Amino acid sequence: MDIILTGWETNTADFAAAIAEFEAALPGFWWSVGQCSVGAHASCAVDGNGSQAALLVGVKAGEPLDDGFHCDTHGGSPAEALRDVMRQAVAYLAGERPEDTEGQADD
User: Fold this and answer.
1) Across the chain, what does the average pLDDT equal?
2) pTM for this one?
3) Where is mean pLDDT largest: 6-10, 11-15, 18-22, 95-99?
4) Residue 61: what are its φ and ψ, rounded to 5°?
5) Assigned domain for 93 exists
6) N or C of the chain: less Cβ packing under 10 Å?
7) Is residue 6 part of a domain?
8) What pLDDT does residue 2 have?
9) How many domains does the structure of the chain reveal?
10) Is residue 4 part of a domain?
11) Strand order of the sheet with strand 40-46?
């Protein structure tokens, strides 16, 4: 039996653009993106050895800067997932907290 492997048909140009946007908006943060048959997922957080490591001073376990920011798109693309976690992190750094946005409609 032959196994036929097909790609996820990721828009690599859009994904590259999302990476550039992320790295410009959040220098010193690590990021990770994955994709499966259900959709794409991403995570990001402050790199404890990176240029923004000072953001972690005084952060307690379980706080967003400790846990990071996460997204599971349930059908979306890797670029969408990366942009989602970027928006979460940028909003948090701007002073928006999860309770500030509860009940608001998703984009």
Assistant:
1) 87
2) 0.83
3) 18-22
4) -55, 135
5) yes
6) N
7) no
8) 67
9) 1
10) no
11) 29-35, 40-46, 69-72
